[in-house]
Write a structure and sequence with these properties.
It contains 4 helices and no strands. It has 132 residues and is mainly α. The longest helix has 24 residues. The protein is globular. About 7% of the residues have low confidence. It binds heme C. Heme C (HEC) binds next to helix 3.
């Protein structure tokens, strides 16, 4: 009798857990969607959110104006380095770092840029994923 109760209890827990993980998988923040849809992942990974860099066959090396090779950083934790206004300028190529601007100008709308930069300063503030 006890065994039976325990078994159904365990099965119930397992079902609840499966449901929960399914729900969180579909729950991608809008900023993250903009990030992947704008192909930021061609150059950047975000380990803390398990977002991998997508390499394509026509991948070129990224170089600055003087031909120096640039390493696009993994963006885990980058959100603590600057505020949303800074990231907005960076992604519009109005902001320099080490004497050069970003490789890629953001092609989306102002609204999307706002969502994207707000996501960067909140969800990328930590080297580990933010607890929901
Ligand atoms: C063609 C490659 C490339 C693509 C595509 C790209 N980046 Fe970058 N990104 C770089 C490189 C290289 C750096 C390192 C800074 C530098 O040396 O220019 C960088 C740096 C950054 C930084 C860090 C800035 C700092 O110093 O704090 C952020 C944030 C960033 N990129 C966001 C994005 C976002 C968002 C997208 C998509 C809209 C994107 N990147 C697409 C190459 C790329």
């Amino acid at each position: 009798m006890w065994k039976l109760t325990l078994t159904s209890f365990a099965a119930g827990i397992a079902l609840i857990c499966m449901g929960a993980s399914r729900a969180s998988a579909g729950d991608v923040p809008a900023g993250q969607k903009i990030f992947t849809e704008n192909k930021c992942t061609q150059c950047h990974s975000i380990d803390s959110l398990k977002i991998a860099k997508v390499k394509s066959a026509d991948d070129e090396e990224v170089k600055d104006e003087n031909g120096k090779k640039l390493e696009p950083p993994d963006l885990s934790g980058i959100g603590k380095d600057h505020d949303a206004a800074w990231f907005t300028k960076w992604l519009k190529k109005e902001q320099e770092v080490d004497g050069h601007k970003h490789k890629k100008k953001f092609k989306g709308s102002e609204d999307e840029l706002k969502t994207l930069t707000e996501w960067i300063v909140s969800d990328l503030k930590y080297n580990v994923p933010k607890k929901k």
